[in-house]
Amino acid sequence: MRGTRGVGKAWRESVAGRIWRQGAEVELMHRAMGFAALGMVTLMPLLIVVAAAAPYRRAGFEEWIVDGMGLSAAPAGAVRRLFATPGTVLSTTSALSLASLAVFGLSFAASVETVYLRIWDLPAAPWHSAWRRAVWLAALTGYLFAEAQSGRVLRSGWPSSGVRVPLTLAAGTVFFWWGQRFLLGHRVPGRPALTGALCTMAGLVGLRVFSVLVLSPLTVSNAIAYGPVGTLLMVQCWLIGVGFVVFGGPLVGRQLHQRGERPDPEREPAADTPGRARYREDGPTGEAAVDAHGPGHAHGPGTR
């Protein structure tokens, strides 16, 4: 019995144990599926519209998918057939569709911010910081658009790949490091955020390898068996993997910087549901506080 308890205690205090426990608290897979669903209705039209409005030959959402999944010619053709051409997009885009796109985009940014808050156990930011979501969404769109263009410009040959791969890794690391800190109002320490960004990029590299070996042939077989629906299903599976990595990277980065801390099983993660935790301002000085369980449990700024 003592041996079993010792093993259990060692697991709870290990980095892997803390990552597993916090992943369950954050509901990592559930959040990744939400990321994929919102990403499909947000990032897809955003990148298609931006590509259509660009004054030169451009790559859009379909090229980002093809490049990110590392698809060969046959599955890449199946993915490209899912999306409209830039000329068709411009001729059918209305003010109402752009407004709807903005609403979905801000909802997507808010969902990412919520997961980051839970990963870092931070209270929600005040309402007037919502502008950060719009800036982050614009930066994300620009980053993905640039990635798609680089795939078209620097795709063929080892010399081009030797230039593109380091640039892609560096740009991705900078974006994911900056993105989580910016969304959370720079309340995340720089070094753990950088570690999380590096873990995110490592995870995306692993996801690409998995996609080349597994998802690419499955895309071809699903396209033959089920048509466009089968292709769309594989794209959604890949987006779920992207969401898992994007949220899992910061989680791993945080836990790697807490190696010396003893786990607290009573710790309650920052919640995103009403009645658990909310950000408010008390008194004439506007001092921030988190009300976790009601009037008798107010805390100071940044406390848990």
UniProtKB/TrEMBL annotation:
Stretches the record annotates as Disordered: 256-304
Record keywords: Membrane, Transmembrane, Transmembrane helix
Membrane-crossing segments per the record: 32-52, 95-117, 129-146, 166-184, 196-220, 232-252
Keyword Nucleotide-binding included in the entry's annotation: no
Protein name (record): Membrane protein
Bias type Basic and acidic residues, positions: 258-270
Biological classification of the source: Bacteria, Bacillati, Actinomycetota, Actinomycetes, Kitasatosporales
